[in-house]
Automatic annotation (TrEMBL):
SUPFAM superfamilies for this protein: ISP domain
Protein name: Nitrite reductase NADPH, small subunit
Keyword Cell inner membrane: no
One MF term in the entry's GO annotations: nitrite reductase [NAD(P)H] activity
Alphabetical keyword list: 2Fe-2S, Iron, Iron-sulfur, Metal-binding, Nitrate assimilation, Oxidoreductase
InterPro entries per UniProt: Rieske-like_NirD, Rieske_2Fe-2S, Rieske_2Fe-2S_sf
Superkingdom, taxonomy of origin: Bacteria
Pfam families to which the protein is assigned, alphabetical: Rieske_2
Residue ranges occupied by any Rieske domain in the UniProt entry: 9-104
Species whose genome carries this gene: Methyloversatilis universalis (strain ATCC BAA-1314 / DSM 25237 / JCM 13912 / CCUG 52030 / FAM5)
GO terms for biological process, alphabetical: nitrate assimilation
Length: 106
């Protein structure tokens, strides 16, 4: 039986994250990048590319993918997995929008 101790933490208003942009939140597990797509979907992943640790928050968002600014690896925001032919994964985090506010499971 799992003992779930995580709670939802308020991060910011959705409008505080630019379309096709991100916002970085510092957590005990490291920096988390929260992305907003052009369709107002939000995703949260560890702010390190699985390739060389590049800051994904500084990458280019296109669709539900971000391109790492260091070596152009494409990472699926929903799963944190690299797009083939690259292989690797960055940790994802639960995130949601309620009443225009972004909440992160911390």
């Amino acid at each position: 039986m799992s003992t779930e101790t995580s709670t939802w933490a308020h991060v910011c208003a959705l409008e505080d994250i630019p379309l096709l942009g991100s916002r970085v939140v510092t957590a005990d597990s490291g920096d988390i990048a929260i992305f907003r797509t052009d369709g107002d979907r939000v995703f949260a992943v560890h702010d390190k590319c699985p390739h060389k640790g590049g800051p994904l928050s500084q990458g280019i968002v296109h669709g539900d993918t971000v391109t790492c600014p260091l070596h152009s690896w494409k990472i699926r925001l929903e799963s944190g997995e690299a797009v083939a032919p690259d292989v690797g994964c960055t940790r994802g985090f639960d995130v949601k929008v309620e009443n225009g506010q972004v909440l992160l499971k911390a």
